[in-house]
Design a protein that fits this description.
CATH topology of the largest domain: Rossmann fold
Distance between the termini: 33 Å
Shape: globular
CATH superfamily of the largest domain: HUPs
Mean pLDDT: 95
CATH architecture of the largest domain: 3-Layer(aba) Sandwich
Number of strands: 9
Bound molecules: adenosine monophosphate
Strand order of the largest sheet: 1-4-3-2-5-6
CATH class of the largest domain: Alpha Beta
Radius of gyration: 19 Å
Order of helices and strands: EHEHEHEHHHEHEHHEEE
């Protein structure tokens, strides 16, 4: 595995691979890697000839009162995980490499960035879309891998790739969970034992709603209520919503199309998100693996 820190070095490394017709996969991350990231890297390694992993804690997607300065880091552990998951290149740019002096051009997502996390993190998806567009242009991958864990992010990125004709297939990988259901997240590192126990309430609610759905419950309000039950134990719920997976609009009445039950909540001072997909039609079961059409 090669470790590179500059755009020029990365391009020099990837150019011959691209000329040989190799398929390049890309996994953008903010580091402090866990098996969720590992799953993305492994999928890329299985489907592509070369896999680029980036670690970049992107300042433009953090709000002023968020955890940018304290975001957890452990480069040595990250390198080992990348190596073990069969990444070929690890890209570690400095902030000035991505945002040189004078930088002033952004990607502005549309309505998909407004609900859910967008309501509580103004500017977040603008920062995400901008850095992902830049990284797509730097890496020029054939496939890019994102986790369903950040469901709204996958929808915003897929829309951006289509709208801006970015020649990349966006692949969404199902959420990896701990044995007890907690979705893996770099931010779980902030949780002490008590908070870790309360954090479990998010997945408990979502997984209970999904179990009820699998047993035939189709009433949107009922499913949300089932998920809300365990959330009494967390400090503040920002949102718990059942939305259409395509347009992120709330589902009213019966769940008759692929939907995402999404939650964001604070456990102590740690903000956690999670979601499950509820797919009423057999054809929608694969909805969690959504792909943009290349060049569309
Ligand atoms: P982050 O480092 O948090 O920006 O995440 C980088 C990528 O890993 C994003 O596409 C996330 O959605 C994905 N990811 C984070 N946690 C998980 C998880 N538990 N399962 C699958 N993918 C994940």
């Amino acid at each position: 595995m090669r470790v590179v820190r500059t755009i020029a070095d990365l391009r020099a490394l990837l150019r011959p691979l691209r000329e040989e017709g190799k398929r390049i996969g890309f996994v953008p991350t903010m580091g402090y890697l866990h098996e969720g990231h590992g799953a993305l890297i492994r999928q890329s390694a299985a489907r592509c000839d070369a896999t680029v992993v980036s670690i970049f804690v992107n300042p433009t997607q953090f709000g002023p009162s968020e955890d940018l300065a304290n975001y957890p880091r452990d480069l040595e552990r990250d390198q080992n995980l990348c190596l073990e998951a069969e990444a070929t290149v690890l890209f570690l740019p400095e902030v000035a490499e991505i945002y040189p002096t004078g930088f002033q051009t952004h990607v502005e997502p549309g309505r998909l960035a407004d609900p859910l996390c967008g309501r509580f993190r103004p500017g977040h998806f603008r920062g995400v879309a901008t850095v992902v567009a830049k990284l797509f242009n730097i890496v020029q991958p054939d496939l890019a891998f994102f986790g369903q864990k950040d469901f709204q992010q996958t929808v915003v990125i897929r829309r951006m790739a289509r709208d801006l004709n970015l020649p990349v297939d966006v692949v969404v990988v199902p959420t990896i969970r701990e044995a007890d259901g907690l979705a893996l997240s770099s931010r779980n590192a902030y949780l002490d034992e008590d908070a870790r126990r309360r954090a479990l309430r998010l997945s408990e609610g979502l997984l209970a709603a999904r179990a009820a759905f699998d047993e035939g419950e189709r009433e949107a309000a009922k499913l949300v209520e089932i998920a809300r039950g365990p959330l009494a134990g967390v400090d503040s719920v920002q949102y718990l919503e059942l939305v259409d997976t395509q347009n992120l609009e709330p589902i009213q009445g019966k769940v008759d199309r692929a939907s995402a039950l999404c939650v964001a909540a604070y456990v102590g001072s740690t903000r956690l998100i999670d979601n499950v997909i509820l797919a009423p039609l057999p054809a929608d079961v694969g909805i969690s693996v959504v792909r943009s059409t290349q060049g569309a």
